[in-house]
């Protein structure tokens, strides 16, 4: 009897499970059918090429760009769909279904913030194209693309969406052409121009018709050092959130790519050069960058020098696409720009949506730079007083032409954060290296309007520990000993090399 009862319960439970599964299957099938019907109706409502109905172009750039040459059926279909989607004639449930994985990850509020965001991408090559693709696929609906260049055959090893059919198209137009087929609701503002400091206000202006909405984020994917520095300085000064992609060229290890503050990045040539220039402009931290910590070594790719035949064609600066643009061929493994681009896009997505994240902090050394600047000021007053016969009045109001940014550059970049004599990285100071042969005092004006300053330059200074600096002032600058009396030839050679490096950067101050 108990066995029969048990079997009856099992059969009843099995029947219930089967019934629930059938019901669930029916519900899911109905939902899928409804979704398919919505998609089908949307597609069928779009006129196909050759029907005699000309598709209206999708909302394009503020700066006019010509139509796609020789558009095919897919182009016409995609542009028509994009026009309707941007006009609001697109089922929002379909958009949310396409973004469902992001929605459950970021939450409704996070996805809403992403969908309302406005992001500017400057540089639409290997890095920028992948960043743009990731943002469009993730839900960002306002993308301003800025680039002066066209798709070339050599672009195809690393560009996110370009095909052979796109060769010769502006890179910004190529991205819009391909991505409207993925996310037709995205509004593209295409700017066919090179970024320079003089056009920063125009390129980073608010989105038209959005009540002055400023960019929520700027992605710097520029590979020209001049333009990169101008962009980052402008964003820093204007309070615009920006992330900068450093050098993907010659890199091969994707596990070494990371996000860190510009003041903390290392093992990256472009990052180092950018950081040095920014410090001389007073920006030593506060800008996140994507960079690689991969070390170069024997057998690895390196920057290719120009062939002698290229020099014979004319001045090196005239060989590039634009004046002052890079002319050397940079070896690039096609996968690495994609890694850099997706890391940059990932950072932007998480920042806009408020998702928890951290990146390597910059060294909090502003107080140290101020203390070093005060030491430079005091030591220069001692030198001037000594040269001027011990008169105290000549030092009253004396100014030194050095800023905290200069101090940061010299300590961290030129001298690598170490004493030039012992390599000790603590209690660092800057001090004049050579004893002046004549007066260092510069006077302008007379009486109450007189300005007094030191003729000190960046290339005059050396980084020492405080104890080493005290001895240097006493025995060299105010005493009778020579550099050769105190230091080895190796130390003197090292200091001279570092000072030449500083001298080369003085023109960027």
From TrEMBL:
Listed SUPFAM superfamilies: Activating enzymes of the ubiquitin-like proteins
Location(s) in or outside the cell: Mitochondrion outer membrane
Keywords of this entry: ATP-binding, Ligase, Membrane, Mitochondrion, Mitochondrion outer membrane, Nucleotide-binding, Transmembrane, Transmembrane helix
Primary location class: mitochondrion
GO CC entries: mitochondrial outer membrane
Keyword Transmembrane helix attached: yes
Domain of life where this protein originates: Eukaryota
GO BP annotation list: cyclic threonylcarbamoyladenosine biosynthetic process
Gene3D superfamilies, sorted: NAD(P)-binding Rossmann-like Domain
Gene Ontology molecular function terms on file: ATP binding; tRNA threonylcarbamoyladenosine dehydratase; ubiquitin-like modifier activating enzyme activity
Record membrane topology: Multi-pass membrane protein
InterPro entries for the chain: ThiF/MoeB/HesA (IPR045886), ThiF_NAD_FAD-bd (IPR000594), Ubiquitin-activating_enz (IPR035985)
Domain THIF-type NAD/FAD binding fold: 101-359
Protease listed as a keyword: no
Role, per record: Catalyzes the ATP-dependent dehydration of threonylcarbamoyladenosine at position 37 (t(6)A37) to form cyclic t(6)A37 (ct(6)A37) in tRNAs that read codons beginning with adenine.
Family listed: Belongs to the HesA/MoeB/ThiF family.
Protein name per UniProt: THIF-type NAD/FAD binding fold domain-containing protein
Species this protein is from: Dichotomopilus funicola
Phylogenetic placement of the source organism: Eukaryota, Fungi, Dikarya, Ascomycota, Pezizomycotina
């Amino acid at each position: 009897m108990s066995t029969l009862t048990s079997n009856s319960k099992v059969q009843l439970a099995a029947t219930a499970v089967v019934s629930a599964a059938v019901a669930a299957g029916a519900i899911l099938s109905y939902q899928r059918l409804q979704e398919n019907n919505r998609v089908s109706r949307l597609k069928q409502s779009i006129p196909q090429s050759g029907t005699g109905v000309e598709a209206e172009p999708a909302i394009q750039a503020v700066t006019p760009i010509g139509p796609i040459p020789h558009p095919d059926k897919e182009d016409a279909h995609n542009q028509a769909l994009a026009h309707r989607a941007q006009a609001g004639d697109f089922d929002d449930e379909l958009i949310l279904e396409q973004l469902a994985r992001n929605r459950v990850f970021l939450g409704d509020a996070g996805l809403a913030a992403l969908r309302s965001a406005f992001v500017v991408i400057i540089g639409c090559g290997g890095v920028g194209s992948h960043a743009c693709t990731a943002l469009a696929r993730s839900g960002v609906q306002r993308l301003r693309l800025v680039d002066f260049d066209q798709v070339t055959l050599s672009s195809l090893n690393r560009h996110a969406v370009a095909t052979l059919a796109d060769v010769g198209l502006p890179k910004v137009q190529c991205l819009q052409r391909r991505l409207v087929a993925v996310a037709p609701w995205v509004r593209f503002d295409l700017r066919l121009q090179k970024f320079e400091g003089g056009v920063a206000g125009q390129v980073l202006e608010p989105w038209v018709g959005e009540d002055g909405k400023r960019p929520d984020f700027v992605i710097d994917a520029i590979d020209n050092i001049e333009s990169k520095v101008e962009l980052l300085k402008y964003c820093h000064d204007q309070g615009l959130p920006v992330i900068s992609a450093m050098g993907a060229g010659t890199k091969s290890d994707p596990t070494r790519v990371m996000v860190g503050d510009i003041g903390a990045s290392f093992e990256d040539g472009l990052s180092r050069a950018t950081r040095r220039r920014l410090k001389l402009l007073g920006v030593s931290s506060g800008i996140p960058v994507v960079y690689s910590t991969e070390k170069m070594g024997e057998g690895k790719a390196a920057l290719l020098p120009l062939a002698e035949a290229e020099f014979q064609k004319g001045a090196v600066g005239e060989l590039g696409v634009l004046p002052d643009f890079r002319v050397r061929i940079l070896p690039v493994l096609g996968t690495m720009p994609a890694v850099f681009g997706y890391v940059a896009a990932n950072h932007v997505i998480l920042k806009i949506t408020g998702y928890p994240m951290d990146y390597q902090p910059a060294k909090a050394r502003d107080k140290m730079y101020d203390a070093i600047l005060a030491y430079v000021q005091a030591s220069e007053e001692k030198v001037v007083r000594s040269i001027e016969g011990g008169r105290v009045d000549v030092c009253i109001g004396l100014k030194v032409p050095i800023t905290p940014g200069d101090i940061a550059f010299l300590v961290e970049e030129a001298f690598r954060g170490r004493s030039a004599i012992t390599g000790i990285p603590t209690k660092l100071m800057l001090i004049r290296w050579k004893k002046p042969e004549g007066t260092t005092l510069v006077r302008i004006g007379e009486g109450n309007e007189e300005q007094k300053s030191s003729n000190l330059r960046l290339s005059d200074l050396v980084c020492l520990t405080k104890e080493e600096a005290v001895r240097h002032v006493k025995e060299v600058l105010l005493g009778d000993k020579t550099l050769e009396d105190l230091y080895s030839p190796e130390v003197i050679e090292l200091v001279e090399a570092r000072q030449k490096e500083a001298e080369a950067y003085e023109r960027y101050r």
